[in-house]
Amino acid sequence: MTDKNQISALILAGGRATRMGRVDKGLQPFRGATLVAHVLEKLKPQATHIAINANRNADAYAAYGLPVLADSLDGFAGPLAGLQVGLQQCATALLLTVPCDSPFLPDDLAARLHTALLAEDADLAVAVTLEPDEHGVPQRQRHPVFSLVKRSALPQLQAYLDSGMRRMGGWHGALRVAEVLFSDAAAFRNINTLEQLQQEERGHAPSLQQVIGCLSDYDPGALPVRHAQHIIQRFIQPVRAVEKVALRSALDRVLAADLISPIDVPAHDNSAMDGYAFDGAQLQGREQLTLRTIGIAYAGQPSGLRPGPGECVRIMTGGVMPEGCDTVLPQELASASDAASVTFAGNSVRSGDNRRRQGEDLQAGQPALRTGKLIRPADLGLIASLGIAEVPVRRRLRVAFFSTGDELRSIGEPLEQGCIYDSNRYTLYGMLRRLGCDIIDMGVTRDDPAALEAALREACESADAIITSGGVSVGDADYTRAVMDKLGEVSFWKIGMRPGRPMAFGQIRSNGHSAFLFGLPGNPVAVMVTFYFFARNALQRMMGVDGGNDMPLLRARAADAIRKKAGRTEYQRGIVSLGADGQAEVRLTGAQGSGILRSMTEANCIIILPDEQGNVAPGESVAILPFEGLI
Ligand SMILES: Nc1nc2c(c(=O)[nH]1)N[C@H]1C(S)=C(S)[C@@H](COP(=O)(O)OP(=O)(O)OC[C@H]3O[C@@H](n4cnc5c(N)ncnc54)[C@H](O)[C@@H]3O)O[C@H]1N2
Ligand code: MOO
Ligand SMILES: [Mg+2]
Description:
Elements: E1 7-12, E2 29-30, E3 33-34, H1 35-43, E4 49-53, H2 58-62, E5 68-69, H3 79-89, E6 94-99, H4 109-119, E7 124-132, E8 138-150, H5 154-162, E9 177-181, H6 194-201, H7 208-213, H8 225-235, E10 242-246, E11 259-260, E12 270-271, E13 275-278, E14 288-297, E15 311-315, E16 327-330, E17 336-337, E18 341-345, E19 355-356, E20 367-369, H9 377-385, E21 390-394, E22 398-404, E23 408-409, E24 420-421, H10 424-435, E25 438-445, H11 449-462, E26 465-469, H12 474-487, E27 488-494, E28 497-498, E29 502-510, E30 513-520, H13 524-542, E31 554-558, E32 569-578, E33 584-588, H14 598-602, E34 605-609, E35 621-626
Parallel strand pairs: 1-4, 1-6, 4-5, 7-9, 14-15, 22-25, 22-26, 23-24, 26-30, 28-32, 31-33
Antiparallel strand pairs: 2-3, 6-8, 7-8, 10-21, 11-20, 12-19, 13-15, 13-16, 14-18, 17-18, 27-29, 29-30, 31-35, 32-33, 32-34, 34-35
């Protein structure tokens, strides 16, 4: 039996992470925590003392409550330098080592290595798995970073390091080594690149093809809106990194953990009215009562008063209910009162009226707000009422966007014949800002494969999501498709909707980074409609927003006839107001061409006409989505 008291563990986090762009690996966000936090959770049941070998960010590692040991050898000498300092500082006879980038390590690692070490009277026990060689034949492979080492082996290690050697398993020749075969090779996988990290982060997230494969009647050339929305929602993955921000800065951010109320709110039973507090049992069937006033209870200070039968306390709104009182008579319901007493009719209040109960707003120990909540002004106040100063929120989503088209000019440039000013980047800027994203405006990209590829790569390497406009319809889609296909998995759709028929969606990769891609159509109204009805929800999901925040559809009467083709969803721009009868009534803004941006600026709502709907008669009820909300 393994006595865990005999085992210390050392997490090796001292490397330079050259394949991960030299970031500090252990501190990389992973599945709601960091890599090192996952390793720590695995180790806690396996060892009593745990330390971390790290050569950077000692404070951040120390925050996990563990001793941080830096190499005594200079210049990131590798894991053996970590083992050296680990053995030097080890308080027990045995030291278990694991790397910081293997969050899936076996739960029985220490126990099995220890059993073998004892059985074979070895100096060191090392994990072994079977890995196929180039012919597919399984070969035993040692994982020297997953070892249990006797502290007494330090002189052999020292001699090996003194000879200038640094290979992790290189010093095993001088030792008695016990090999322990683990059948689950995947438990030893480590994460070396940011791309692997993102893949693991996604866990078993399906590929775009798999998501699409779940639709029995998928037709990219005639895709219903709901199918496109379904595919996007299934494929998108949230960004999990979390940060703590001061309460005010949490506005419009997404809560990253349930906020448990540390206190009851209100903390005491208190009065909802200015008036007189008394024991409601005295009301019983009496026509009139006169109670003697024994004192005054102000808000903010318990009065210490205890009225007896026939007595009451003058109380202010928010004042703590005096002991024995459960009812408050609002002062305006008194038929007579002076400083000494109050008289009122027995039916003017019922027992228990106008008392706010302790914890009726929030109860200690109960979640006050749930993870995934988009924090609005009321939430700020509610968190403040709990006395909480800092809030864990998801990190902001980074979204890069650019326009494509040789005809596009930016503000400040002369407008040559045949050219137009780029407006999509401005509508996209506004819509993304409203969502609270960090935005990267990449300007205009020429209609040219090399320029498009360069822009997509740059966007992919700096953002979580990319939004492009233009170049996805038949005229241009061929080269766009070729470039996007080269960089990842992107589907080109013709959606059963108007405006916004052509659209591309998928995920691209570049240099170990990946990003979701929304290739929106170029027409200015189409770009807004596709953003609102596809990208917006997807980005909110990436931000970690919990599902229940969908915008509510309202209904209004069509003031005039609306032409509508059945078989597609139309998003017409409307102005809703109250008709003469007080009912909501909506009219079109005028011409509905997808190049007519004025139709959006004049509108205060979108009229959503679903697939099955044909022409709309005057007076018929239609669904609308108002632009403005109260908060
Ligand atoms: N033969 C077909 N032609 C078109 C179809 C079709 O199915 N068959 N679909 C039409 C629809 S619907 C749309 S929407 C557009 C989408 O075209 P692209 O995504 O390829 O976009 P572009 O051709 O680059 O531009 C379309 C239109 O929008 C103007 N534009 C583009 N970017 C901007 C910008 N940043 N600011 C302002 N205006 C912009 C551009 O000048 C074009 O006029 O395809 C239809 N054609
Ligand atoms: O998708 Mo297009 O917007 O209808 O011109
Ligand atoms: Mg085009």
